[in-house]
Specification:
Distance between the termini: 43 Å
Number of helices: 4
Structural class: alpha+beta
Order of helices and strands: HHHHEEEEEEEE
Shape: elongated
Number of strands: 8
Radius of gyration: 24 Å
Helix content: 10-25%
Amino acid sequence: MKKQIALSVSFAALMLVSTGAWAQDEESLSNREANAPETSARATPTEYAEAPAASSAQEVQEKKDRKLSKGYMVGDFKVVPSLTISEEYNDNIYTEDNNEVGDFVTRIAPKVTATLYGSPHKLVLTGGLEQVLFADETQNHYLNYSASVKDRYTINNTTKWNWGLSMRRAHSLPGDNELNPSADAGEALPYNVYSANTSLDKQFGALTLT
């Protein structure tokens, strides 16, 4: 039976400079909106009547999301970097019944997410790495990585199209094949995972079908 003693310390968003940087970004965005020409903020009653209410509500919500989310504005993208570091001790890394081997395992995982706020799209790009290091059993070192893209495209006031693509490079650890231990590898073996998804959201009054 596998036993594991783990002690983890995570530093999420360590690559972000400080809350002051986020506040400065939000203040800059507010200043730009406050200094916008008055003509762009005014509309005749006819223009208000012609403007789609749902689109206006969506734009307002996107502005709120952009202000509340932490990160840096790079062009039209809000970029959020992060770094997670964890340390654990596993007293049986090969999940053996006999001759158990323990080791310290370090995981270093940087990640970057970039979100485009701009109607009719909300595009999210994500990329990350995970370096796994063993203190003694160094032959088990491995590197995972992943990337994904997803988008929400607003076709009209009541219809939205969602789609996404992702890939992930992972590893099968020694001892993972519990159904057939004799076929288990003696070291971490890489494998790839690919996925794609799409959906269409249609709203009928208070009812939304996907």
